[in-house]
Every structure is written in C-alpha cells, then in structure tokens.
Amino acid sequence: MTNMATVQPQAILAFDHLAERYDDLFTKSLIGRAQRDIVWNVLSQTFRPGDYVLELNCGTGEDAMFLARNGISVAAFDASEQMIRIASQRLRPEAPNPLVRFSQLPIELIHQIRPERQFDGAFSNFSGLNCVVDLNHTAEDLAALMPPGAPLIVCLSTRFCISEMIWFSLRGKLSKAFRRCSGRTVAKVDEFAVNVYYPTLRQLRRSFSPAFIMRSCVGIGITVPPSYVEPWIRKYPKSLNILQAIDKVLSSRPGFRVLGDHMLIRFERAQA
Ligand SMILES: C[S@@+](CC[C@H](N)C(=O)[O-])C[C@H]1O[C@@H](n2cnc3c(N)ncnc32)[C@H](O)[C@@H]1O
Description:
Layout: H1 9-27, H2 30-46, E1 52-56, H3 62-69, E2 73-78, H4 81-89, H5 91-94, E3 100-104, E4 121-124, H6 135-143, E5 151-157, H7 162-170, H8 174-177, E6 184-189, E7 192-197, H9 201-208, E8 212-220, H10 230-235, H11 237-250, E9 262-269
Parallel strand pairs: 1-2, 1-4, 2-3, 4-5
Antiparallel strand pairs: 5-9, 6-7, 8-9
Helix pairs in contact: 1-4, 6-9
The structure holds S-adenosylmethionine.
C-alpha cells in the first residue's frame, strides 16, 4: 500500500497547467489519433458491453468516453484536478447515461478506491505509469481490486524510442535523443520539473509479477514518430499512412516492439 508521500506534486501541477492544451497537442493530433487507434483496438477486443472497468490516469477522458459509447462502465481517475474538470465537462454532452465517473485520485492512492462492485478489468493509457516511482505497489493495489483472470492493459513510454533517437540526433540534440536511455529523466513541462521513469519490458513484468502475468506486448509508434513531430507529419500527411503500415508489420516482433514511442502490454490477473 503506497501513500501520499510518493506522489509527485510537480507532475500534478505540470498536468494541471497542460490540461487545457492537452487535447489540441495530443488527442486531436494526427499522430495522437494514430497511436490511440491501436489502443482502442486492443481495448475493444478486451472489454465487453456491461463490463465495469477501472481507468488510471484518464486525462481528459478520451478513452473513458470511447468505452462508454460501447456500453462499458468506467470508473476513471487522474491526479490532475484540471484534467478531471475537463473530462467531467464532456459527460453531459457526450455520455448522458451514467456509465462514466471521473474522480481526482493519484495512482499512488488507488488502494482507497471502494468500487461499487469488483472491476472486470483495468487500464492505464499513455504514460501515466511513467510518473510513478514504485510500480510494485501499484501492481499490488491493482491486484486487490481485480478478480483472477481479469485483464490489465497498460501503455507506457518505452526506454528506447528509435524514432526519437533519429529525430533529435539528426538535429544535433544528442542529450534529447538519448534522454530516456538511463531509465529516468527530469522532463520540463512549462516551469515544472517532472521525474519520468522508463522501465524496460523485463522490469515491468517483474514489477507486476506474481499478481499479473504478461499475455502480450505490442509496440506503438515504432516508425510513427512521437507527437512533437506533428508539424512535420502535417506537411507530409501521406508519410503517416506509410509509417503506420510499417508499424503494423513490426509492432508484435520482439526485437521491435520495445523500440517504439510506447509499448502496450496486456497482463492478466493471476489465480490467487
Ligand atoms: C499523457 S497523459 C495521458 C492521459 C490519458 N490517459 C490519455 O490517454 O490521453 C498522462 C496523464 O497521467 C496523469 N498522471 C500523471 N501522474 C499521475 C499519477 N501519479 N496518478 C494519476 N495520474 C497521473 C496526468 O495528470 C495526465 O492526465
């Protein structure tokens, strides 16, 4: 069980500041959409109408709304008050039924959740878990909220992002190109310094074991670049289709799946 002492206040402040711009910068970008489509594909294959799902670090609620449109109930949490405010504003126009509930809560405090009923599964999309220092505790806390056999989908930034290395190396920015490689970096978001952790796939498996067993892993954004390359992609939009097609071929291959911008892992809650 973790406590408030391990929560990063700087990360929360940074995302509060970013919240109003987040959808324009990422959710609505061509690259963000391309990356999210892969996650939605996996979420659709994993959860069924009538399921009750826990979402960590939900941001502005894009995934929760998607699941609600598919008849899935979501209890969605995020550490940032501003992200939760924006997500909640979407409820009435987009999901008038009570399938989604947004609440402010950091991942480090999810042991405080008292669900209406046991969750049928859980997920965390796009790097919220990269802001958490101790994923062993997160795994323990999640395990207590899910029955054996339940799926857990997590999408994290990778340690080695090949397109980022190439993009910044070509521009002579070597420290940016290799910033993830040590496993930890301090990211500047506006005036806030946020600790970001980049566990390898092996470390993640170890952190989530024995409560969770890894069932699959796919790479996201192996040749499709990170979202800060959006201006270039907008100039050459056809290139995105080509890169997406290449990613489709590479995304499940063991050598490549951990070299994208993100990795999407499907765990299963182990038998007690
Ligand atoms: C890159 S955004 C992803 C948001 C959303 N999942 C999506 O798919 O667009 C990362 C999110 O993680 C949240 N976050 C960062 N650290 C967190 C923590 N310790 N607990 C909960 N949420 C956190 C941020 O507030 C932000 O909304």
